[in-house]
Design a protein that fits this description.
The protein has three helices and 28 strands. By secondary structure, the chain is an alpha+beta fold.
Length: about 375
Amino acid sequence: FFFFSFFPRFYFVDFCLFVNEMDEKEEDVAVAVVPQPIVMTDELFDISFHPSSSIVACGVITGEVGMFTYGDEPISHELLSEHEDSCRCVQFSGNGQHLFTASSDKSLQCFDVEKLEVLYRHDDAHEASINCLIQMNENTIVTGDDDGVVKVWDLRSSQCTKQYKEHTDYISGLAILNTAILASSGDGRLSMVDTASNEVQVSDDSEFGYTAVAVVMEGSKVLLGGEDGSMPMFSTGNWGDFTDRIIGHPEYSSVDDICVVTDNIVCTACADGGVRVVSLFPNRVQGLINSHHGPVESVEMSGDGALIGSCGHDKMIRFASVAAIDDILSAHDDDDNEEEEDEEHKEPEEQQQRQKKKQQSKGSFFDDL
């Protein structure tokens, strides 16, 4: 007792870990080291992680495209972007060999990641500023613009092969569900276009604009971000109206990006500067995992699944460990347990108070007689 009373707690924890390693020969568990933030000189619109290397790319308001090896000290890789206006979209290819970028100057670029040079460029890829970009498969990318137009591009020919116009306002987000393209829009509608069958479905109008979209729950649900801070959820195949809605973000602080972490957990980029952990079942905003000084434009998980990266108007790429999500969920569970215990304690007290009041009322009644 004397030993443990005066032995510092953190030494005791280290000692226990040492004993476990030596006596039980447990395997080491890799814990992600959170890199230092990457500081830029201008506001950022988007980030993308390389699928297999510690590299992150970002789109800058000046039209520049940044690419860094992240760690204790970030190493910059110079890319000579030809965008003349803000670079709104960056996306590594699935194999990591290419980096696709798009701009409000309506241009679309493809970089060779190894050679750090532009492979090809379309100056007028759209008639309006490009706002979204996603890779559909190894041969196809999809882009969306401020006029509500969605275009499908064949990477083998570097040409647009299909075009859709189902929206009256900007395309705020794109997601892929098998052969279907899902697009969210500022007009408050979600569209589904199946590129194989050419089936098109558009949701009913919402009272608020949609700002992001993601496929969750193994494709059975589609989650959106809302301008009002809510997150409507559609059931796949039922595109008329959303079947559920997650609330808990600050009111009227738009959810501008969604990063799928697991089947039941996503992270959100919010206009109030918060990067939050959200569980789908139960529907709940669990808490902050990171924060920026100003709106957050993009949030994404690293290729190895160890980090959550985000960027925004504070000109920084910030990182958080995915492992921290467990702590956030556990803290919320502890709060729930405390609330349940409080309710259990309240019930007997309330019953006693009610019984006491009954006895007092009976006493006063007979006293009056």
